[in-house]
Each structure stands twice: as structure tokens, then as C-alpha cells.
Amino acid sequence: xxxxxxxxxxxxxxxxxxxxxxxxxxxxxxxxxxxxxxxxxxxxxxxxxxxxxxxxxxxxxxxxxxxxxxxxxxxxxxxxxxxxxxxxxxxxxxxxxxxxxxxxxxxxxxxxxxxxxxxxxxxxxxxxxxxxxxxxxxxxxxxxxxxxxxxxxxxxxxxxxxxxxxxxxxxxxxxxxxxxxxxxxxxxxxxxxxxxxxxxxxxxxxxxxxxxxxxxxxxxxxxxxxxxxxxxxxxxxxxxxxxxxxxxxxxxxxxxxxxxxxxxxxxxxxxxxxxxxxxxxxxxxxxxxxxxxxxxxxxxxxxxxxxxxxxxxxxxxxxxxxxxxxxxxxxxxxxxxxxxx
Amino acid sequence: xxxxxxxxxxxxxxxxxxxxxxxxxxxxxxxxxxxxxxxxxxxxxxxxxxxxxxxxxxxxxxxxxxxxxxxxxxxxxxxxxxxxxxxxxxxxxxxxxxxxxxxxxxxxxxxxxxxxxxxxxxxxxxxxxxxxxxxxxxxxxxxxxxxxxxxxxxxxxxxxxxxxxxxxxxxxxxxxxxxxxxxxxxxxxxxxxxxxxxxxxxxxxxxxxxxxxxxxxxxxxxxxxxxxxxxxxxxxxxxxxxxxxxxxxxxxxxxxxxxxxxxxxxxxxxxxxxxxxxxxxxxxxxxxxxxxxxxxxxxxxxxxxxxxxxxxxxxxxxxxxxxxxxxxxxxxxxxxxxxxx
Amino acid sequence: xxxxxxxxxxxxxxxxxxxxxxxxxxxxxxxxxxxxxxxxxxxxxxxxxxxxxxxxxxxxxxxxxxxxxxxxxxxxxxxxxxxxxxxxxxxxxxxxxxxxxxxxxxxxxxxxxxxxxxxxxxxxxxxxxxxxxxxxxxxxxxxxxxxxxxxxxxxxxxxxxxxxxxxxxxxxxxxxxxxxxxxxxxxxxxxxxxxxxxxxxxxxxxxxxxxxxxxxxxxxxxxxxxxxxxxxxxxxxxxxxxxxxxxxxxxxxxxxxxxxxxxxxxxxxxxxxxxxxxxxxxxxxxxxxxxxxxxxxxxxxxxxxxxxxxxxxxxxxxxxxxxxxxxxxxxxxxxxxxxxx
Amino acid sequence: xxxxxxxxxxxxxxxxxxxxxxxxxxxxxxxxxxxxxxxxxxxxxxxxxxxxxxxxxxxxxxxxxxxxxxxxxxxxxxxxxxxxxxxxxxxxxxxxxxxxxxxxxxxxxxxxxxxxxxxxxxxxxxxxxxxxxxxxxxxxxxxxxxxxxxxxxxxxxxxxxxxxxxxxxxxxxxxxxxxxxxxxxxxxxxxxxxxxxxxxxxxxxxxxxxxxxxxxxxxxxxxxxxxxxxxxxxxxxxxxxxxxxxxxxxxxxxxxxxxxxxxxxxxxxxxxxxxxxxxxxxxxxxxxxxxxxxxxxxxxxxxxxxxxxxxxxxxxxxxxxxxxxxxxxxxxxxxxxxxxx
Lengths: 341, 341, 341, 341
Hints:
The structure is a homotetramer.
Chain A lengths: L6 H13 L3 E6 L4 E6 L2 H5 L33 E3 L9 E3 L3 E7 L6 H14 L3 E3 L17 H14 L3 E4 L6 H7 L2 E4 L7 H8 L5 E4 L6 H13 L5 E5 L17 H8 L4 E3 L1 H5 L5 H10 L4 E5 L17 H17 L3 E2 L1
Parallel strand pairs in A: 5-6, 5-12, 5-13, 6-7, 7-8, 8-9, 9-10, 10-11
Antiparallel strand pairs in A: 1-2, 3-4
Helix pairs in contact in A: 3-4, 6-7, 10-11
């Protein structure tokens, strides 16, 4: 309560809290009185405490999420990618199993994506990424091949056995994407597209949920809670950099988020150095740092010919660069006590 | 080009640019060589210049948007809200016409929304806001009444003549929301939900597009460009605060964005002090500041009984507060040379 | 306490708190136990509560500043600028008295600063700003004329009667600057230069304290507390924009800080639109917005010939622009119920 | 130039540039004309190009720093700490030599700092940190023992051979601190205290320059340039986290800054996980990530009894934690190809 709060204001609040069947703990201090509200989160949430007269500040003591929390589920969640496909080689992610997802920003053509798949497999990747539906800042940029792109991805899987990770942007496409993809990606800009989160929460496929550009760790966990609350527990989180004032790189990789998420949640978390940096330089170095920070996998943009990529060329590694990157990360994965197939 | 770039690298780039039918201007400096690319934006965009060897940095000289820009359409756009409804009193927004949109965060019941509509009309508001579909950070918070809520809003319009502003979150609901609403709102979290932007771009109703929490002015204009590029030019932009390190208020109102948007674009822009502050205190003061900054309207959360609001209670004004707020803003609207009915 | 905290951990903390002569309030919740510490701030501060085993989070309920707070001193502080100089026309700032400080970024020459002083006086300014010591990001930029610059400023005062506002950067120069200046400015980069704050706290002249680029409102008030705690109560605060991801202007003007500071503190606060924007365009507009937000004055960069300014040319207004700006702000000052001489 | 710029405006600018003895390159595009200015940085800086009529935007192509840049000095700088003291065991930092600086936030007493020194030496640290002058956000927090603290640090060095790293805040104390300390630290809040930077630039001791809370990589390098431009080339940079909206940790560690600084500059850079996180948890993990990112050393807060530390207790490691941390980082140092004595 504010120092100038009246006794009447205090009593009104205490009465309202008790009417909701909640307990109250009142602590009278030298300058301020603190009213503690005790009871289930859902009930407390219903009272707009800040709106009452005399209230100076409301502080939340409990966590607002449940199913994603370590307290709810102490063991780490392990997600198997490509588990139920006859033509995919399944791979585990989380709980000590480390994996690398790689590929181009967008699917450019049938031949191109097969070439990419072979390239990343040759270098050691475990799954293929590639966009059929592309979220682009400008409406005039290439928006992806849509369903045709999904078919091209499936063909690349058939050819290499690599499970497919691809973005879904439209709730109307979730079923379609789930049919072709092994992991449905929710992009950073859609992290709080709650309609989409609920829809993938009802699907059977694993979901890769990227952290929004200005999302806190708590926002990320609450977005995952949307998916889990609909029944889908196969969620992989992804740190991909946040927006700050720094201009030397596109985003600021927030590696502290990795151990923090792992302390608070049982869900696996991977790191995307390509979007965090926004350029090729230092991708291998940041990948090593991400592994040392404890991430359960990496997602890296790779293109056979970045200078002719349809999108995100500047941040794509070419084959020699990606191969060198994989070579550099191996001992870090080992040192972190994780296993990379 | 980087100082250490080779002549070969330079020539490769120049050749590639020319192959796309673009012109080149080379400027050899004391330390660095600068290659200028001249031609239509769409063509230039296709070459991933940062991906070429020897490139140190790529700077864009032209603007990435077209239809939203002042250069494309010098006159200010005026949006009429509630134009084609027999039961609504239409109101203009933009080009000197100032209007106030007010109402509760969410539609709570049929009686409640009618009460709210009467309250805000009595105080001088020109349109009613209220959420039937609510984007909530937590899946366990109240998610809105959906279609029932839309019907309640329509009934409140029938009763008061106030046009309706309400959020649409799901592309599958755009048609439905357009049927009931006079303005379809795109929330801050969906500012880059491109699927939804395209869908409202094909609808006939005006769109209220809120700036994302970490969106730049350019991102906001590009999001609007998505809507205009689909054919809907009735777009109202909205500044509602961005995310910064400051903890004294929920978001940081960025009032410099208002004259900046008006310099770059012909679209009207309104200000939302309720979400910018996240609490009642100072809403009237910030409203006056927004008007002095040049905004074309305000959107304010008002509730007859904020202490019992279903959501956002702490930032809702009650009737005496809202009435006082309207009283305070009137002379500022006049001073800004705008007309408020 | 964390949900998994042991009873022993709880008891250790309670014992430690009591040993310091403080009271304890324990509230056992459904999931967590909350320990309240009651007593004087100074005593509580000495116990590093977060360092104890079993502690999940420490939340501060009281405010960390005292002398700058409204609770300590309810009446607004009014600072008189130029009060004790025979050659200055004193002017009040705060408590309803509004004033405009204007002038070039740096003192360029004796003739130049006199020309500037006459210009800003002619347009209606009440005090002259101008840097003799310049904090520059690069060591190779012009660093100011030093003591010679101070003498030139004094000569401009003698000629026009305008009190002088100038920056002090070095604690060894405080006495010297106080001899010539009417207000000693602490720049944004020195807001937490505690050595300098203590030094100006022991001087007699008023201090203009600019908010740091990433300082919270609380940081700003604590920096002012340093000055007041040394005995100098004549402190004017200044909002000049914070650092965010937005690139359309140099800094992001945070106008919500103005009513917030006024709610928490009795000190006057002025607004600097020149540094907030970093360019001439929209300075008059933002000035009006700042006044509507409640600021007690403005500080604006003005130069007779911005294209030949020694520093900060791009954000300087020339005479016609400044004159128009003053014309535009007058009715806003009046509307805000303030008096501008 | 803006699309609407006149030919006259263009000619005025070109004329002004040429008058300064600089070259001009004009590139006429489809929508805009670009004027390139060619010549030495110092000359270009003198023309406030943004202030000229018709200018839309000014982009800098060259870097604003010189002595700190790789281009100026391609080989990595190696700083020897404690080189010229009879009672110190010198240690190298940079160019492959990795070292750990550890100790309490502040020097609490003579016995205490000797105990700390022995503790960190026993665990494997190479230098002792400890504050005699403490920059505290609040004037009421413990401000350090001053010169007495410096003497206590010197005694701890005499006892253990560990070189001393301690902060200097006041330009008047630089000589005194240089007498006792082996490395003079400039704290984050003083990164742009140019008076202090110049003063340590004239001293002989190595300087540890911490990145400001909202400083860009370029700001950090320019601050270092101040020191080098005065003659002192023994500068160690330090990443310690920046301010963002994230609330789960005190600051956001920006590990991308490490390889970026090393690409742009020859100066060594160390990492401070204690201030980046603001709490004990995850310090060892982030240390490993920092090493993987390429840092040349670590600076860690260690206290024999964090629960009774005079300041920063929550982020201090105790002996078992620090010992375990050193054990965890060793293989990462090796893997990074660096040598830790």
C-alpha cells in the first residue's frame, strides 16, 4: 500500500480478497503496509489489485506457468524428431541428446532442396530446415513456395532420411504442414500468435518455438504453456537473439537465457546463431558458446551457394564453412557431456 | 568493400549487379571503396550483397515501402469509421479530424458492454472499443466471449450509435469480425502476423494496426504495406509504447514516432496511453502530450468499475476519470488545429 | 523462499534478520513462503538477502531514495537561475515557472557566443547554454575551449543579462565552473559519475542533471540524491531520451518519465528535444508534447548558422526555426497552467 | 539527398566539401542522389553534413577509431599484469594467454582481503580484484575504504604475490591508485567519463575498461581510443552485460561482442559473468560460454562468506563454488587453444 493509503482502502482490499476465498497476510512496516494474498494463482489473477485505491505496487511471488515448469515435471523432456516416418532416420533432442538442424532459409526448387539436404547430411547435420512459407518483413520479398515447397521437402527427406523442420504461419495450414513436416516451427514474430499456438497444441507433431525479438524468458515459457495446455508436450524452445540498441549484429544473442530456461523448465532449448548474428562471421564461434551455455542443439542456415540464395544469403554458411563449424563444435558437445550422433 | 578486399572480389560483385540489369557507381576512397547499386528496389533486393566476399557492410539508401509512403500519396488519408451501417453514427479520423475510441479491455456481458457504451458516449467518445477475442500472455487468463462478444458489441452500437473497434486474432475469423465490427484491430503481438495482415488486407473494413512491442517505425510501415498491398487502404496506425529497460511503467511511450510516421506516411496515427503506461495514473497527461505530438486520435481503456474488470483493470479509467480526461484534452485538440466532434 | 527451501534455511535467514535488530513477518503460502523484513532501509540494505541458501527472489518494497522524494518534501522545488549575479537577469524554474534555455552545443569564439546569446534572447529564451568543456565520443572531435570558453560565456552574460548553463566534466573544475556559470550541467554520460556528483553537491550553484542514456527513473533520482545528500538542493532534472532499438531518431524521448518524476520527486524536470531527436525536424513538435507532459522548461540547441557549427550542427535550430518554435510553445505553456516570462 | 532536394542544395554541399580539400563522388539513382565524400576522417567530421538543406541521411563508411583498430595494429596486444613489482608474480593476458581475476566486490578489512587473496590463489586465480573506491547507485551504500583499502590490497599482494586489480573513479586519485594497483579498473558507469579516460591514458599502469550498460561495441572502442590516444596502450576491455528489457537476470551478457571486438581491435577482452548475471547461479556455465566465445580472461566475484559480504553478496561465489568453476573452465580454455598458467 502507498504510505498515504487510508485504513478504509486497506480494509476494502482485504475484504475483496477474502470474498474470493483467499487468505490474507498483513505486514505493517515502518513506512509501508504489505498485504500478502495466499491461494491458487487462478483465483488471485481474477482480482485487478492494482486498480484498488491506495495500492502502490503489486508484486507476484508465484510463477504464472505450470506445465512447462521444472516443479511440475522435474525430468528433462526428450523430443524425438522424425519418429513415425518410414523414410526418416529419427533423432533425439534433449536430455543429453544433442542435434544439429541445418539447411537454407527457403526452399528454392526441388533440385535445390535435395542438394541442400545432401550437403548438410554429408557435413553431419541430423535434420533439414527449409521454409515453404516465409514470414518476410516486406510484402514484396519472396514469400515461399507453399504446399509445393512442403512436397519438395518431403522428397528431400525421402532421398536422405533427414527429418524436416519447417515453419507454419497460418492456423489453417497446421494440418497440412503436420502431414509433411517432422517439426513445425513457430517463428519469432509469431511467438505470441496465440491462435497459432493453440492450433499446433492440438497437433501431434513436435513444435519448435522461437523466442520473440522482445520476449522475456517468462513470455517464452508462457507461449510454450499455450501449446502444452492444448495437449502437445513435444515442444523445443529456441533462443535466436533479442532486439537491443547494438548495431554491430542484427540481434543480441542472449545465452544466459539457456541455463535460465533449463532451470525453470523441463523443455529442451536450442540455439540459432544465424539469426542471432545476421551474418556469417562468428557463427561457428557463437555455436561453441551456445553449447558451453548448455543448449540441446543448434539450428544453422546453410546454402550451397549463399551468393545466390533467394533469402538470408548474408547469414548462410556454405559447405566448407558448415563443415568446419561441425568440426569445431564436436569437442564442445563432448565436453558438455552431451551425445551427438 | 572491406579495406582488404581484392580487385577480383570487387569485379565479381560489379559483374553480378550488371547481370541483373542494374547500374553501378564505384567510388574509390582513401581507405575504402564504395559500390553504389542503382535501379528498382525489387531488383536490388534479389542480390544478397552481404554474402559476397570482400563486402564489409551494405547500406540501404531507398525506402523499402511504397504504398504507405508520403512520396507515393502526398495527401493525408482520412478514414471514416462506421460509414456504411444504418445504426452507426459515422466519424472521420485523420486529415485534421480527431476522434476518441474508448471502452473496456474485454466485453464482459451484454448489459456490461451497453453500460460501457453509454458511459463513454456520455463522456464524449466517438467509437467503442472492447475485445471479443483477447490475446492473453497466459493460456489460463480469460480469452474473451468470441462470436457472442461480437453480437454484444453490435447491440451496444444499435443502442448508442457508436461504431465498434474490436480485435481480430485469427485469419479464419476476419470475415466474421468484419460483419460485426466497424474497425478491425490488429494487436501489437500480431503486428508481424503476415497471414492475418494479408487477410484483413482483402477485407473491406478499416484496420487499426498497433505497433509491435519491439517494432521500429519502419517495421510498422512495412506491416501496413502488407495490408495496402492487398487492396485495403483504410489503415489507422497506433503507437502504444515499446519495450525498454525502464520499469516505472509497463511500456515506454514513443511519442517521437508520431511526427516521424506522419512525415514518412500519409496514414493516420493514433495513440494508446493506456497500454503505454499500464496504469491509470498519468493517462490524461500523456493523452495531452500525444495530441501535442500530432496524433489523429486516442484509444483509451475505460470501465465503469475498474476494480471488477475482467482484464486490464489497473489501466482502466472510471467515468469521472475519463470525463476529466476528455475535458483536459479538448483545448489540446483545438490548439493542434484539429477538429473533434 | 524457493518452494524447495528447507526449514533450516528459513530459520537461518530469520535469525540473521533479527540479529540486525529488524522485525520479521512470515507468510506461508500454498506454494511459497514469503519473509517480510521490517525496519529502516539502511539496516536492511546491509544484509545480502539474495546470497542466503533457499532464497528465490528479493523484492524491495520501500524506495531507496529519501531527500529527492515527494514524501520527504511535498512542495515543488523552485530553482532560481542567475540569482546572485549583478550582470544576470534571474529567472525561476519549477513550481509553475517555465523557462527556456537555448544556445549552441559548444562555445566557438568570443564573438560567436555573444551573437548566439543575442539571438536566443531576441527569440525569447531565458538562459544561454553553451559548452566550454565538451564530452565527445571520439577523442579526435573538438573538446571545447575550456576556461577561455567560460570567460566568453561570462562576457555573453554581461552583454545580454542571460544566465549561463554550461557543463562540468572534471571534479577538479567544479570550483572554476561555479565561478563563471549560473547552472552547472552534468551530462548524460556522467549521470553516474559519483565523484563529480559529490563535488557539485558541495558547490553553491544550481545543477542541471541529465538522465543517462540507459538510466531508469529510479537511477536518475538516486543520482540526484547524491547531490542533495551533500547539501546542494538546487537540482534540475532533465529528460533527454534513452537508448532503444529504434533507428529513426538518435534516442527515444521518454515523456512518461516527466509526470512520473513529478509524482515521485519535488525536483523540477526539463526536457531536451534536441538530444532526444538528434536532428532538427520535429523539435518544435516534441517541445509542445514535453510541455503537455508537464515539463518545467526546455533546453534547445540553437546556432546562427547550423551548417557551420563546430559540433551537433544537425540538431541545431537556426534563428527562424527557433523563433517559430517559441511561438508554437507559448500557448502550450499557458494551457499547462505555467508562466513563462 | 532527399528525393525533393534541389540542384542548388546539391551544389552548395558539393562546394562546401570541396572547399575543405575533400573529394566528391556523385551517384545519381532512380529515386535518390548519393554524394560520396572522400578524404581523411578528421576533415570530414568537421562538416555537419546533416545540417545542410536537402540532406536526407548521412551514412559513415569509415571507422571513427584508429589506434585500437586491427587495421592499425594487426597483432594482438598482450598485457602483462604485475610486471614491475618485486612482490608480484606477473601474468600475461591476451594473444593466447588466459587469466582469471577474482576477489570480493569491496575490500572489507585488512584480514579479510588477505583471506580472499589466499582463497582465490588456492583455487587457481592469477590476480586479485577488490574495490577500495566503490561506485554505488545509492549515496547511502558503503562507498569503500579509499586509500586505506589500497594499502590493504598491497598487503594482500605482498602476502600472496597476486597482482591487484582495483577501480579508480576520480581523476585526482589516478596517481595514487597507480602507485598501489597493477591494473586500474574503469567501471561501466565511467566508460564515457572522458576526463578519467584521459587521466589513466597518461598513467603507466594497464587499464581494465568495462563496457557501459548501454554502450555499443563502437562506443567501447572509442572509449579505449581515448586511453590509447594519450599514450597508454595497455588496455584490457571487458564485456559485463548490457541493459535490456529482460528481467530474469540483472544484465544481458552480450557474448557476440567478444569475437566482434577481436575482429575489429587488437586489444584483449575479458568477460565478467558476475555482473552480467547479478546472481551466483549459472556463473560457471556462462564462464565456459565466454571462453568458447573467445574471451582472453575472466573476472569473477568471490567471497569467503557471501552471506556477510559488504556489497554484491548475491553474485559472489564462495570457495567451493569458485573452485568448481575453475575446474569446469580449464578444459574450455584448453579447447579454445589458450594457455592458463
